[in-house]
């Protein structure tokens, strides 16, 4: 049985936070988005990508906030100087601030965090170049949470990401299933793309989630 912890409506529909057994679960319009029981790949999105980048005072874009696991790993890296967080659902930000999500309020209170409530496509354009751009706004290009996000996985937006990265900066995209079209689009835009296939055990089911990483070349 699941217990409803919070519910909100936005122009995109219904956002619900549930407690199921010991885990919290986020659903949008009835669709499972993520839970707090299986967060290894959300965390790896940050750690595997930051490992590819050198330097200090790194400027990182996290899109979206979700349950906050990617952001926690970003903030755990002392080389990160600024973490710009784009989250389209204001209610989710409120739930973090109200303490409904593990360590959410503390993370958003970190002096390095710049929270932007809005579309990551708009937030991408603001300020100095990014060293890292982390995209986890759907269940991947094959399983959109919001149809409007379809553009995020296409060449036009990926080119904008490349152009907003510093030389040597890395874009990473999370996906629940293999995304060959995304991989080829990243190869076309960046010249190369690394696909990381990470095994995940969901109850009695063994599957894997994927990360797609692409680096902006130095010249
Ligand atoms: C799968 S969750 C992110 C999970 C996150 N990586 C974590 O560790 O918890 C997706 C989040 O992206 C947000 N989102 C969806 N589309 C967005 C967009 N276009 N811009 C910004 N945030 C968006 C959703 O509201 C949701 O909070």
From TrEMBL:
Annotated protein name in UniProt: PABS domain-containing protein
Organism: Saccharopolyspora montiporae
GO molecular function term, any single one: transferase activity
InterPro entries: PABS, SAM-dependent_MTases_sf
Signal peptide residues on this chain, from the entry's feature table: none
GO BP annotation list: polyamine biosynthetic process
Keyword hit for Transferase: yes
Highest taxon in the source lineage: Bacteria
Positions annotated as active site in the UniProt record: 136 (proton acceptor)
Residues in PABS domain copies: 1-219
Keywords: Polyamine biosynthesis, Transferase
PROSITE patterns xref list: PABS_2
Family (UniProt): Belongs to the spermidine/spermine synthase family.
Pfam families assigned: Spermine_synth
């Amino acid at each position: 049985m699941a217990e409803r912890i919070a519910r909100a409506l936005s122009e995109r529909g219904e956002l619900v936070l549930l407690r199921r057994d010991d885990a919290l679960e986020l659903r949008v319009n009835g669709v499972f988005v993520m839970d707090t029981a299986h967060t290894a790949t959300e965390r790896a999105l940050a750690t595997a990508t930051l490992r590819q980048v050198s330097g200090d005072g790194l400027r990182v874009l996290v899109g979206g906030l979700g349950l906050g696991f990617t952001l926690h790993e970003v903030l755990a890296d002392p080389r990160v100087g600024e973490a710009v967080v784009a989250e389209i659902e204001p209610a989710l930000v409120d739930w973090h601030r109200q303490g409904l999500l593990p360590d959410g309020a503390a993370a958003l209170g970190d002096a390095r965090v710049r929270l932007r409530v809005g579309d990551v496509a708009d937030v991408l354009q603001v300020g100095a170049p990014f060293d890292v751009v982390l995209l986890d706004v759907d269940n991947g290009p094959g399983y959109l949470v919001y149809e409007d996000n379809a553009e995020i996985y296409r060449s036009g937006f990926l080119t904008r990401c490349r152009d907003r990265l510093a030389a040597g900066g890395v874009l990473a995209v999370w996906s629940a299933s293999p995304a060959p079209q995304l991989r080829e689009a990243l190869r076309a835009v960046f010249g190369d793309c690394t696909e990381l296939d990470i095994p995940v055990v969901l109850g009695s089911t063994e599957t894997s989630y994927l990360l797609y990483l692409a680096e902006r070349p130095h010249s």
